[in-house]
Amino acid sequence: MGFLKGILRRFGILFKLHKADYVFIHREALPVGPPIIEWIIAKVLGKKIIYDFDDAIWLPNTSKENRIVGWIKWHSKTASISRWSYKVSCGNDYLASFAKQYNSRVVVNPTTIDTVHHHNPELYAKHTSDRITVGWTGSHSTLKYLDDIVPVLQQLEKKYGDTFQFLVIANRKPELAIRNLAFIPWVEKTEIEDLIKVDIGIMPLTDDVWAKGKCGFKALQYMALQIPAVIAPVGVNIKIVDSGVNGFLCSTPDEWFNAIDRLIQDKSLRHDMGIKGRKKIEENYSVISNSSTVRSLFE
């Protein structure tokens, strides 16, 4: 019933668009079915759509949680909406290359971090602990990416014992064979306060077409909070992290272990990489640096 009410509310919005110059649509107007609302906005109402997406949403990526509705998600509508839109805003070059097949007005609009009012370490108390905390944050649907890194974490745990901790911040507690596993339920209000507890942030990914569409939000969060990031060199990640300068890009288990191990042992390296990482975000992925890109969508 709630879902049906949501659909009715969304159709109700159509009657409020007569004064709009632009209609900004993130991903889709409805999570299932064909792009009826988008077609009405563009073809019937004649409004300029700014279409924004930050995942490879044209690819079927049905998880166990949404397999029931997977067959009615209508992935092909991404192409149609792109074709009808005035401009298309994409989170990285890979997504933009898809959109350019259907629209010549495509803008690469990277994931943007509020480094002043939100992801700002100066707003929060400094984290101090005798333990080194390696951390990961994400939704339950991306917990699967931790599976391949577990042997590395076990190796680190064996080396450092109780001075090592792996912290997961998510909306579901994972089942991982790690003795010193800590879990904090993700809560929007305390999200940054919880992330500050992490000394080294990780972002493992599988190198597939879906992952290439991801926009590196985890890495951006870590770096904005001066947390050195150790991430997989997949998709836009290779642009975000300059390996060995403001973080590490790792492909093999040995590379993952050596990078995290080096950061655990060297506090000054963690500090220096954290400073350089935040500088990279401020200059390339912050609200301040990206404001002109967003404004250009409406010109």
Which structural category fits the helices and strands? alpha/beta
Q: CATH superfamily of the largest domain, please? A: Glycogen Phosphorylase B
Shape descriptor reads: elongated
**Low-pLDDT stretches:** none
On the 0-100 scale, what is the average pLDDT?
93
Strand elements, count: 10
CATH class of the largest domain: Alpha Beta
Measured by DSSP, the beta-strand proportion falls in 15-25%
Architecture per CATH nomenclature, i.e. the level-2 architecture of the largest domain: 3-Layer(aba) Sandwich
Structure characterization notes:
With about 300 residues, the protein is of the alpha/beta class. It folds into 2 domains: about 10-110, no CATH class; about 120-285, 3-Layer(aba) Sandwich (Rossmann fold), CATH 3.40.50. Helices cover about 35% and strands about 15% of the residues. It has 12 helices and 10 strands. It has helices spanning about 1-15, 35-45, 75-85, 95-100, 150-160, 190-195, 210, 215-225, 235-240, 255-265, 265-285, 285-295; strands spanning about 20-25, 50-55, 85-90, 105-110, 130-135, 165-170, 180-185, 200-205, 230, 245-250. The strands form 2 sheets. Strands 7-6-5-8-9-10 form a 6-stranded parallel β-sheet, with helices on both faces. Strands 1-2-3-4 form a 4-stranded parallel β-sheet. Helix 3 links the parallel strand 2 (about 50-55) and strand 3 (about 85-90). Helix 5 runs parallel beside helix 10 (about 255-265) and helix 8 (about 215-225) crosses helix 11. The longest helix is centred in the last third of the chain and has 18 residues, at about 265-285. The protein is elongated, with a radius of gyration of 21 Å. The two termini are about 40 Å apart. The mean pLDDT is about 95.
